[in-house]
Amino acid sequence: MPEPLLELRGLCKNYGALAVTDDVSLTVLPQEIHAIIGPNGAGKTTLIHQISGTLRPDRGSVLFAGRDVTALPVERRARLGLARSFQITSIVPGFSVLENVALAVQARSGSSFRFLRPAGSEAAINRDALAALEAVGLAGAAGRMANALSHGEKRQLELAIAIAMRPRLLLLDEPLAGAGPEETARLIGLLRDLRQRYGILLVEHDMQAVFSLADRISVLVYGRVAATGTAAEIRADPEVRRAYLGEDELA
Amino acid sequence: MRAALTRLAAPALLFLLLLAVPFLGIGGGFVLDLLTRAMILGIAAVSLSLLVGGAGLVSLGHAAMMGIGAYAVAALDAAGITEGMIVFPTALAAAALFALVTGAVSLRTSGVHFIMITLAFGQMAFFTASSFSSLGGDDGYTLYARTEILGSPLLQDRRSFYLVCLALLALVWGGCTAILGSRFGRVLRAARENERRVRAVGFSPVPYRLVAYVMAGAVGGLAGALLANASEFVSPASLSWTRSGELLFLVILGGLGRLHGAILGALAFVLLEEWLSHLFVYWRLVFGPLLVLAVLFLHDGIAGLPGSLRAWSRWRPTFSKRRSADA
Ligand SMILES: Nc1ncnc2c1ncn2[C@@H]1O[C@H](COP(=O)(O)OP(=O)(O)OP(=O)(O)O)[C@@H](O)[C@H]1O
Ligand SMILES: [Mg+2]
Asked: Which class is domain A1-81+167-251?
C-alpha cells in the first residue's frame, strides 16, 4: 500500500457536550477519491475544517504527506498542497471571475511582494487561471464580476480556485450542491479526471455521484466513522442502512 | 485598454488643472498657499485611502504619521540641519519606523479594535510631542527656515513649492495606483473582501497589511514634513486625533473606491473650510451633515459623482421597467 497522502489519527472535537468529531481516523491515498457521507449535522464540514486548518481539533493529529500539520495555520497547509472548496461559497465578490482564480495561481507563482507591475497583465498567471476555468466550464464567464454569478456558477468557481492551486489533495465540501443535472454530469467527469493527479476527500450528499466516483467511502454518524469500505461494502453494511441510507436510495 | 484610459481620465484632468493654476495667476499667492496645503493633505489622504479603501484598514491614527514627519523637520531644524536630502529621508524613515512598530501590534486586531488601537497609538504620539519641551511643548515650534534642496532655497518660493507638492502628489498617487494593481495590491484587496479565501489559497494577510501600513506611514511622514514647511510651524495639534478624523472624513467624502477621490476630498475640505469660515463662526457644524449627505447620496464620494449622476438620470420606478420588459 502506498504511503497515505492524508492521515487522520484519533481526531476529536467537542462543542460543549456535543462531540462533533469523535475519534475519527482515516486515510486518503494518492489518486484516491475517499468520500465521506452522513446525515446533516453529522460533522462532515467540521471535519474538513480541522483538516484544512480552520479549526483546531481538541485531540488527535492530522498528517499530510507524512508530516504532522496539526499545528499549522490554514495558509501554511495550503502552500503544502492542501486545497479546499467551501460548502458555503467563499469567493472574492468584487473581483472578476478570472481574478478570483488568478489569485490562487499567484499564490503558487513566486513572491507576491511585487509592487509595480500590473498583476492583471501577467500572461502566465492568466493562462493558468483560464485553464482552471475551462476545466470547470466557466471560461465564458471569465470577465464577469464574481458576485454576479448564479449560485451554481459560484460553486464552479469555488472548484476552479481549488484546482488552480495545483494541490496534492483536494478537500471538497459538497461541490455538487446546487448544480443542475447537466453541470452535475460535467463535474463528475471533471472529478474523475482530477483523480489522476490528486487525492480527493469528497463530502457529498449526491449518492449516485458518490457511488460512481469513490474508491472508498466512510460513513460519518454523530461524528463517528460508522463504517469504511468500498461502494459495494457500504451498500451492504446493515448498520449504514439503518443509520443513514434510506432503503430506496439503495434500490 | 479603453477602460484603463477612462479610469485615468479624471485624475489626469485633475492634475492638469492643478498644474495650470500657478500659470493662470488666479487670486494671487493666497490661492496658491491654500491649494498647496490642500495638496499636502491630499498626499496624506491618498496614503490613507490606500489603507482604508485598498486594504480595508480603517486607521484613526494617520495624523501621527504626519506629525512625526513634521517633528522630524522641527528636530533637525533645532539642530541646524535644513538640507532636504537629510530632512525628508529622516521624516519618511521616522514615520515608517513608527508605523512598523505600531502596525505590528495593531494588525493583530481587526475591525473596531483596529480603529481603537490606532487611535491609542496616535494619542501616545500626541502626548509625546506635547512633552518635547525643547521643541516648544504644547506651544509648538517655529522653524528658523524652510528645508533646502541641495542647498538651494527651492521651497522658499511660493510657486516652486506649489509645483514640488504637485509633483509629489502625482508621484504618490501614481505609486499607490500601481501598488493597488500589482500582485501585492491584489492580495491586499482580496484580503479586504474575503480574508478566509485569501488564507485558503495560501496567503497570510498580515505581512501584506503591515507592508502597506508602513508604506502609508512613510507617505504620511512626507506629507507632515511638507506641511511643516508650508506653515513653518509645528505643534502637537497636527498629531491630534481630530486631525486623524479629518483625514478619514475627507477620504470618505472624496470616495473610497478611487485613489484620486482622496485628492478631491482634500481639495473640497480645504476650500470649503476656507469659504465657510468666512461665512459664519460655527462653520464646523456643517461638516457633520455634509458627511452624512455624502455617504447617503454619493455612495462613491466626489470621485464617483459622474457615475452617480448617470445612475440618477437613468433612474425609473422599477415597476415600469418590469412592465416594459414583459411586453
Ligand atoms: N461553532 C459551532 N458551535 C456549536 N455547534 C456547532 C458549531 N458548528 C457546528 N456545530 C454543530 O456541529 C454539528 C456538525 O456540523 P457540521 O456542519 O460539521 O455538519 P455537516 O455534516 O457538515 O452537515 P451538513 O450535511 O448539513 O453540511 C451540527 O450539529 C452543528 O449544529
Ligand atoms: Mg456540511
From this structure: alpha beta
Q: What pTM value is reported for the model?
A: 0.92
Which residue of chain B has the CA closest to A85?
B200
Q: What residue ranges do the domains of chain A occupy? A: 1-81+167-251, 88-166
Candidates B148, B174, B156; CA nearest to B14 is: B174
* Exposure string over A178-207, b if 16+ CB within 10 A, otherwise e: bbeeebbebbbebbeebbeebbbbbbbebb
CATH number for domain B22-285, candidates 1.10.3470, 3.40.50, 1.20.120, 2.60.120: 1.10.3470
Residue that the C-alpha cell 533646502 belongs to: B148
| CB-ligand 1 contact for A46 (6 Å cutoff) | yes
Q: Considering only CA atoms, which residue is closest to atom 1 of ligand 1?
A: A15
Q: Is the CB of A221 under 6 A from ligand 1?
A: no
pLDDT by residue (tens digit) across B268-297?
999 988 888 888 777 778 777 877 887 788
Maximum separation of any 2 CA atoms in chain B, in Å = 80
Contacts with A158 from chain B: Cβ below 8 Å: none
With beta carbons under 8 A apart, name residues in chain B contacting A119: 181-183, 185-186
